# Entry
Amino acid sequence: MSNYAQDGFMVVDNVLSPGLLAEVRAEATSICRGDRGAIEGVELAGPVQSDTAVLRKYLCVHFPHKISKLLYDVAVLPKIAGVLTGVIGPNVKMMQSMLFIKAEGKPGQAWHQDETHIPTRDQSLTAVWIALDDATVENGCLWVLPGSHRRKFLYPDREQHDARFDCTKEAHGFTDEDAIPVELEAGSALVFDGHLLHRSLPNTGKHGMRRAYVTHYMSADSLLPWFPPGPGDSMGTVDHRDIVMVAGEDPYAFKGITDVMRPHVRPAGEGGCVR
# Structure
């Protein structure tokens, strides 16, 4: 784990076997066809529409583990749990999953830190980014700034209008001259710290589609104040409890588990918002 502590990321090979990889790819198509249940923004696809045409309609589906037992099971795979307990601690919970379908011409996402969007109280946020296709520079693999997590500092973000990216805000106040691409073979995963600066570039179409299954985890020993205050609420969500236990024990099990997050589509294409 020394490299992870120094760099803020590591590659884990062969997280998905060839057979399981094929199953997850097929499941991604079924989800985008609407065959796994209601997803806000997904239209039922008739038999006339080809799988490729259906997949090209979407950029990202949030919380697919809510309707797919297969993706739920992948999120808690023993190999993944073993890596997470090594970098987070013995008690690990998951709060989010995302299925990225990045066809040719689809935009990337500007520099950001996941902790900006999911602010864990103990700064233990960890992402697992599983490549469902070979992720290359040409089709929009992730780029990272090694070591950018070590200060545990959240860089300010701002609106950006770069045509290479969707409309997510970009982090700024640093130089990215030391950024490196992380190319992955299909079935392998990039595990990285929630403070690590990372981005992706558009899929140029040279290497086909760039699908990925991404899950976020943190220590179950910490509260998760994920959402800001609402009307008449001065504190906001003190502890988001729509979680999945992945390893160890849940010290807050007495609070119960909620079911409030719903699968939905992140609007696709250039200018598609992610917020």
